[in-house]
Amino acid sequence: MSDRPVALVTGASGGIGLELARCAAADGHDLVLVARRADALEAAAGELASRYRVAAQTIVEDLEDPAAVGRIGARLERPVDVLVNNAGFGIWRAFGATDPAAIDGMVAVNVAALTSLARAHLPGMVERGRGGILNVASVAGFLSGPNAAVYYATKNYVVALSEGLAEEVRGTGVTVTALCPGPVETGFQERAGMHETSMKSMAMMDARTCAEAGWRGFRAGRVLVVPGAGNKALVKVPRFVPRRLMARMVAGVQRPDA
Ligand SMILES: NC(=O)c1ccc[n+]([C@@H]2O[C@H](COP(=O)([O-])OP(=O)(O)OC[C@H]3O[C@@H](n4cnc5c(N)ncnc54)[C@H](OP(=O)(O)O)[C@@H]3O)[C@@H](O)[C@H]2O)c1
Q: Residue 202: its pLDDT value, please?
């Protein structure tokens, strides 16, 4: 059995998660890759394992299922040193027009599964005095988002949880980071149902650049990582603008589907 540290990455079948898994592998971590699409996950594991000469286990799970985190734990062969809580999705639609089950699913993945995974693995990291958690939040975590209100609220939760846990474990050798990207070109926009006149038309970062910034910040022990100068400026705006006005400004770029 290898003595490399183990990184568990959720949502590693594509997008930012696949690139974060690449960063972890390039940095000498064995991988545990979690997502629903078995084929994409296997392809990712095969490519990363052979390119970076690390071990890569795949676990196919739907994180909307509250029992998934327990099943993942049961399949782990070694303790997790780095937890990358990346799996997540958004819905760009007026609240009242959104399928209630889809809202529940988003909260289950973006909030509940992320929290359960952190609870399952953080105490062991603290006991061993090393490792950490990289949670993928968003610039949405600093704003309220009319017409994507639940998504923005889930990301506010991720930022607050990350900051709280980071302080709680300070000095233990363990770190907690929230990566807060702006728009990144992945499958996210299509799944969220964004249309051309909304955020989809904004400048996008590529997933690798975003992941590399996140991994660097995580390895440096930073609590918040906001990649890109424009995004860094954006997350500071709420300090100077009243919250109601801020929500109205966001509504301007977040028109619901016609
Ligand atoms: N792209 C952006 O503009 C952007 C901006 C800020 C933050 N983010 C955040 O970045 C993270 C990654 O998103 P992305 O942009 O890379 O989007 P993506 O390409 O759609 O990837 C999402 C990943 O999450 C996994 N996932 C989704 N639902 C899941 C479920 N129920 N169970 C298990 N895995 C699930 C997907 O895998 P399967 O489909 O195989 O299950 C996929 O690997 C998300 O948390 C998102 O909120 C994205």
A: 72
| Residue 128 placed within a domain | yes
Q: What is the mean pLDDT of residues 28-49?
A: 98
Each residue's pLDDT tens digit, 160-177: 999 999 999 999 999 999
| Mutation choice for ligand 1 from 9, 69, 89, CB with most ligand atoms inside 8 A | 89
pLDDT at 199 over 80: no
Radius of gyration of the chain (CA): 18
Domain-located, residue 93: yes
Give pTM, 2 decimals. 0.97
- The pairing of strands 30-35 and 6-10 is parallel
Residue 258 lies in a domain: no
- C-alpha to C-alpha distance for 45 and 186, rounded to whole angstroms: 19
Ligand 1 centroid distance, CA of 86 (Å): 7
Residues spanned by the domain of 151: 6-253
- Two tokens at 56? 């890569």
Determine whether the shortest distance from the Cβ of 228 to ligand 1 is under 6 A: no
Q: Is the CB of 231 under 6 A from ligand 1?
A: no
Judge whether residue 224 has pLDDT over 50.
yes
